[in-house]
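Quick board copy: two proteins, each given as sequence then tokens.
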Amino acid sequence: MKQTLSIQQLEEAYDAYGAAVYRLAIAFLGQRSDAEDVTQETFCRLLYRAPSFSDQNHLKRWLLKVAANLCRNQLRGFWKKRVAQLDDETLPAMIPQEQEALKAVMALPEKYKLPIHLHYYEGYSVAEIAEILNLGQSAVKMRLKRGRDLLKTELEGSH
């Protein structure tokens, strides 16, 4: 059942979860402008197409799932048949080791990057990641393991 949100409820949701949606879009797309577009579209869908939410965690998972789907659609689109490179201006101010680790995560293939991001940067469990990405829990565990292995190889090779 769809519900109608007030502007105040939309603002509260954006204040609470806008940064998480944006970080997911950056992890997916690697470019600030694309991530901003996906973030905006995600909250437009919240305003116009939101289902009833049982709690705030349900709302956050719904937002991240919508954002992930929008990112996938954008990557499949005609204009995105190229690899998007991470802009240096996209990276937040952080120490060089953190920037190196974030760049390594962003360079992972999509199927490993998203579970790694959701688990380590957003704090989601394997079950929650499986729900957000429409995967089985065993697939999420395997992608986390393989993603960690790729990161370890990459980060050890750069030192």
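And the next:
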Amino acid sequence: MINRHSFTPIYIQIAQAIIRSVEEGQYTYGAQLPSERELAERFNVSRLTARQANEELIKRGIAYRQQGKGTFVARPRIREVSGLISFSDEIQERGLQPSSVVLVQQQVAATDEMAKKFQVKPGTRLLELNRIRLADGQPIAVQYALINLPLCPKLADKSFDGESLYRLLRDECQVYPLWVDMEMEARIVNRQEAEWLNMQPGEAVLVAHCLTFTETFDVIEVVNSVYPGNRFPFYIGRQRIIQGLAEK
């Protein structure tokens, strides 16, 4: 059912309904999803709203479009947080002691751009949280995060010097990070980050751009994490080699 009084846009609600249907097995991978006309009739919305719902499914990696044929369920492209665990858990698994230095902790209003990423209205309260992350007292990352405060208002008054964000979400607000969509890029460290990370100007960093979701794909956090390229290797996992490329 669509709640027309909700702050969540109608097209997002439709997309979430389709996602639940996929999770419940009503649509299997490769199955064709309802057309824009069928969605419009089912949810009593315009074709434009139905089209936006389909675009949202494609953007999230839930579906893909075949020209002239329709929209189909895609294989998942995002991984569970159990594969990309929290920073604190990652550091502890390496036998080190995690800690943080808070650079910025303040409430801000969502801009139009941020509202689109969080799927909320412009002006919604977000928590800006920028931290230097340390392992045994040594800086190994700088994180620039925006957090969806309406999902967990208690975060506004919490200290993050020695706390795990994911633990607070789970324990204080029963919000469970389950999915993460991540892109990686390499760039040259800027002057301020070089100072924070004990690096030399001109050295390389890896930057992870992440969106973290709940089980219903509400966006919890948008975070950019900057890692020294020579101090924090990433394990991507075992991947299948595409034969056509392997032969070149």
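Board note added afterward: Strands lie at 63-66, 70-73, 79-80, 98-109, 125-135, 138-148, 179-188, 204-213, 219-228.
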